[in-house]
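[[Local backbone shapes]]
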Amino acid sequence: MLNIVDVIEKDEFQGALELNYAMYRNSYKQNYEQLTDIKLVGDSREVRIMNKWIAKHFPDIVLSSELSDEECDGYNRSTIEAEGEERLSTFDKFRYDEFWRISSSLSSVADFHNLFDVDHAKSIREHGIEAIHPDNLNIMLFRANRKKSFKSQERYSWERQEEVIWASLRAVTELSTDEERVVRALVGQLKALY
């Protein structure tokens, strides 16, 4: 996987970089010192997270991202997510955020970037702020979530959620005993949030 250091060390590097969420997650503060311009690439949540952290620590870096079709037609997912998250109780906000941590950790165990993604069962496009709640979240395959797009569907039962995680992992890797223990711990944490 390409990281920021790989880009900076290239002879043709001019201070500008396209940054996706995987590169961001694997970066360190010192990686940003030579950057002047960053184009943020990812979904609205990923872009919002990257933008917030980089703007706070490196206000001189010029940040940009492409406007999605959603934002062009008056639908601004980032705004809806931010307003929805503000309405959550402290405990529900914790639960909501933990879905992304667990999804990322499960992908890391398989050494498969973006194997999993967090899905809003009732889509944000169709249900707005009401979709921003931990009781509306599933962890599913990244490509399945992209295929689902703006459609709503019934939230997975706990049994189905667990089945999706294990079947997806077994389809892409053979887990060691230690890795299986990590997955069981993560699934246990997810069950407590479900």
